[in-house]
Amino acid sequence: MTGDTTQVWLWEFFNPERLWALLVLPVLVIAYILLLRLKRNRGMRYTQTGIVGAVLPRQSQWRRHVSVAMALCSLAAITGAWARPAGTEQVPRERATVVLVLDLSQSMQATDIDPTRLDASKQAAKDFIAQLPASYNIALVALSGNSRVLAQPTNDRGMINRYIDALTLEDGTHIGDALMAALDAIAHAPGEPGEDPAPGMVIMLSDGSNTGGEVSPEQAAANAREQGVVVNTIAFGTLNGYVDLDGQRYNVAPDTEALQQIAVATGGAAVDAKSASQLNNAYDQMRSDVTYEDVKKEVTARWALYALAFAFVASLGAVSMAARWP
């Protein structure tokens, strides 16, 4: 069900103007109170108050009040159903463009993840791609000192896998440039004539801090947010990871804070993965975010069920009072 909704109190409705019918409820409440007072005044004409108690036992009065209250609730619920209430439901996404941004910096040769961070990330990326719907376009971006699009969006899984297999270590970590390259890939994703562009999502895997580039990570994240592109990040590696370069040993703990800032700025998720299994779990979580979307749907039947439940309780009260009537 598509269309604009309007929030009224805690709920959303496709036809909120129909809720004006609820104004009849306070009128009915006032009428009920007036009738009770009128009936009580008439009862005072009896010379013996015991006669009133014999006709209408006191214990039946609360049943009458409950029955009326449930009847009014039923009327309110059926009016809400008439206004076509909206609810959120997760439905499979038919089309999407997913851009994988993989870190190729020298720190990815660390062996704290078996066999290396780079090899583990390559295998996990291929496993992730294999489980995406065939209609999805996949793109690949290299994250290094020369961040660039390696493979434009395509549904040719074999080609993407070949590009992944060919990935090798490079120097530098220009996160902002890599994200801008991913946004450019989404902008050039193929689409069907007459249809809106498929939604785009970026999954960025990195283990290091930004080392430069033409665009800062903050500016790139702001651009992604403006374009409505969600960026999910994976900080890959352990705190004890290290690499030996030029005879020196360097600690290469992942910069989780920098990646988290990018994810938060774009409405994405930031995940830490300290092992290959955790990396696979992170991809599984993100696959759910990619393949499903929240859609507004009419939930009139649910409100009609509420009305039926209230009416049933009101009927029980009415039947109970009728059974006790002399």
From TrEMBL:
The chain crosses the membrane at residues 20-38, 303-323. Pfam families: BatA, VWA_2. PROSITE patterns: VWFA. The keyword Transmembrane applies. Residues 97-286 form the VWFA domain. It comes from the Bacteria. InterPro entries: Aerotolerance_reg_N, VWF_A, vWFA_dom_sf. SUPFAM superfamilies: vWA-like (SSF53300). Keywords: Membrane, Transmembrane, Transmembrane helix. This is VWA domain-containing protein. It comes from Brooklawnia propionicigenes.
